[in-house]
Write a structure and sequence with these properties.
mainly beta; globular; 14 strands; four-stranded parallel sheet; three-stranded parallel sheet; 3% helix; 1 helix; 196 residues
Length: 196
């Protein structure tokens, strides 16, 4: 599935984005925007369907994102810097890359369309989502990625599944998570914990 943007103003004016159901892969920096500059070269035609393009000039105004029901991978930095407030992930999703939704300063909730049947294994990508309060973590998650929730100061509690095997470097740095006594417990089956 591919399409073409005519000019930068067309790209910048998008406030809503729908990823079609047949798309399975959204690549690295597909819709990323940081600190007033775009990452990567402008690519006029791009594909989201199993294409591993490295970069696409970003979007700044995406407030609404609908992800197709076949999506399996969201690449590193894919939607970084968006204005999304609530994110609903498809059950088909298996991997969320590093910084996939980082710097999404309006993001408060991350849920799944069908949590019971979710297939997510690799969870990451929410660094500096300062107002993020709630994240559903499916029972299939085995890895919390590097800096996954760093600087998410409003994220007070997160239920980690028994399937969790590893927690990446600084996955929860500067996040204030734990119970009422400030205790944060990892599942008993967790095997690898980098500095978090």
């Amino acid at each position: 599935s591919s399409w073409e943007m005519e000019n930068d103003s067309e790209v910048m004016s998008l406030t809503s984005l729908v990823i079609p159901d047949k798309v399975t892969y959204v690549g690295k920096a597909a819709f990323a925007y940081f600190n007033g500059t775009f990452h990567g070269a402008m690519i006029r035609q791009y594909s989201l369907d199993h294409t591993k393009r490295e970069n696409y000039k970003g979007m700044t105004n995406i407030e609404s994102l609908t992800l197709g029901k076949s999506l399996q991978t969201i690449g590193d930095f894919a939607f970084s810097g968006s204005k999304i407030k609530k994110l609903k992930l498809p059950a088909s999703l298996k991997t969320i890359g590093t910084d996939a939704f980082s710097l999404s300063w309006y993001l408060t909730d991350v849920t799944f369309t069908d949590l019971e049947h979710a297939q997510l294994q690799e969870l990451g990508g929410f660094q500096q989502c300062f107002v993020l309060k709630h994240v559903d973590v499916p029972t299939t998650v085995t890895n919390i990625g590097e800096a996954a929730f760093s600087e998410c100061g409003k994220l007070k509690n997160i239920a980690l599944p028994p399937s969790l095997k590893s927690v990446g470097f600084q996955a929860f740095s500067s996040a204030v998570i734990g119970d009422v006594n400030g205790v944060f417990s990892l599942p008993e089956g967790t095997e690898t914990i980098d500095r978090y």
